[in-house]
Design goal:
The complex is a heterodimer of chains A (about 110) and B (about 210). In chain A, about 65% of the residues lie in helices and about 0% in strands. Chain A has about 110 residues and is mainly alpha-helical. Chain A has one domain. The longest helix of chain A is centred in the last third of the chain and has 18 residues. By secondary structure, chain B is mainly alpha-helical. Chain B has two domains: about 80 residues, RNA polymerase sigma factor, region 2, helix turn helix motif (Rna Polymerase Sigma Factor, Chain: A, Orthogonal Bundle), CATH 1.10.1740; about 100 residues, Winged helix-like DNA-binding domain superfamily/Winged helix DNA-binding domain (Arc Repressor Mutant, subunit A). In chain B, helix 3 packs across helix 4 and helix 8 crosses helix 10. The radius of gyration of chain B is 21 Å and the shape is elongated. The relative contact order of chain B is 0.12. The chains are: A mainly alpha (about 110), B mainly alpha (about 210). Chains A and B meet through helix 2, helix 3, helix 5 and helix 6 of A and helix 1, helix 2, helix 3, helix 5 and helix 7 of B.
Chain lengths: ~110, ~210
């Protein structure tokens, strides 16, 4: 291994280029990180895999914006839904029927 | 809690303990079920009917609910089933989403056409924060129903892939592909909207 290989790899990762070197520098490739991206953001990855993606994104200039992009998208979705509520009339109607069903017993 | 020197509670209704536990555990999820129903039916009236049917059915089936499991998830399952049955009654076979064989969830995650189109002007997707909630909801409502269901359960209601798989009665892999495809379509629509509104300067295609 040439002395500057590891440095080049490091700069490849943080310098904006795609990191294709994969496992030999202990870092997953951009492709792998992106493949797991949604599962990562959804909290669905096993611990080790999650940590690998996290580590990649922290230092990869190419992937970081994509992750932020997806995160902003998902945050916007979540924020949009917060308010829909069942009307008090609907709630009362349901509770009333439940009370009647409870009082009348099983059919 | 069961008392041992008395008969067990009847299978349906008829018992106030039964009702009280239902009111304590299921009723608090009514808003979430309502929001889900609203997305499925698209109208307030339709959603109210669906919520009502869901809760009546859930109440009658309360004995089948396993305490300690996610009640919200259980209610969503019932809601979906009631909805599908209602829809079946109303129409013949509606748009059934064509699953392009096993649409590859990995490639759906990897490729991001909307990100690619907007990354020069807005590399981190800040435009999503400028879009009003109504527009986001309208875009969700436009999704094919099977994608919409996955997106709503995951991204609006915060359920896990496994929970969604159970509710929708599909494998986890299919949950992922529907969810990711739904997200992609949604991003495309929101991106178009952001360009229309001037939040984003034209797309890559304009140059």
């Amino acid at each position: 291994m040439k002395p500057f290989d590891s440095l080049r790899k490091l700069f490849g990762a943080i310098g904006g280029g795609e990191n294709r070197h994969g496992a030999d520098n202990g870092m997953i490739s951009c492709d792998e990180a992106k493949t797991r991206l949604f599962e990562f953001l959804d909290g669905e990855l096993p611990e080790i895999s999650h940590a690998e993606v996290e580590r990649h994104v922290e230092v990869c200039k190419a992937c970081y914006p994509r992750f932020q992009f997806e995160r902003h998208f998902l945050d916007a979705l979540q924020a949009a839904e917060e308010r829909g509520t069942a009307s008090p009339e609907l709630r009362d109607r349901i509770l009333k029927v439940l009370a009647e069903e409870g009082a009348n017993g099983s059919s | 809690m069961t008392s041992e020197n008395e008969d067990p509670p009847p299978a349906t209704g008829g018992d106030s303990v039964h009702r009280v536990s239902f009111i304590d555990e299921a009723i608090p999820h009514m808003d979430a079920v309502y929001r889900f129903a609203l997305r499925l039916t698209g109208t307030q009236d339709g959603a109210e009917d669906l919520v009502q049917d869901t809760f009546f059915r859930a109440f009658r089936a309360w004995d089948q609910y396993t305490p300690g499991t996610r009640c919200k998830s259980w209610l969503f399952t019932i809601c979906r089933n009631v909805f599908l049955r209602q829809r079946e009654r109303r129409q013949r076979h509606d748009e059934i989403v064509q699953e392009t064989a096993k649409e590859d969830a990995a490639s759906l995650s990897r490729e991001a056409p909307v990100f690619a189109a907007s990354k020069d002007s807005d590399p981190e997707g800040d435009f999503f924060n400028s879009i009003v909630d109504e527009e986001i909801i309208a875009a969700i409502d436009e999704l094919p129903s099977e994608y919409k269901m996955a997106v709503v359960l995951s991204d609006l209601e915060g359920l896990s892939y496994n929970e969604i798989a159970e509710i929708m009665e599909i494998p986890v892999g299919t949950v992922k592909s529907r969810l990711f495809r739904g997200r992609r379509q949604l991003q495309k629509r929101l991106h178009e909207y952001a360009v229309e509104m001037g939040y984003l300067s034209g797309t890559a295609g304009d140059r």
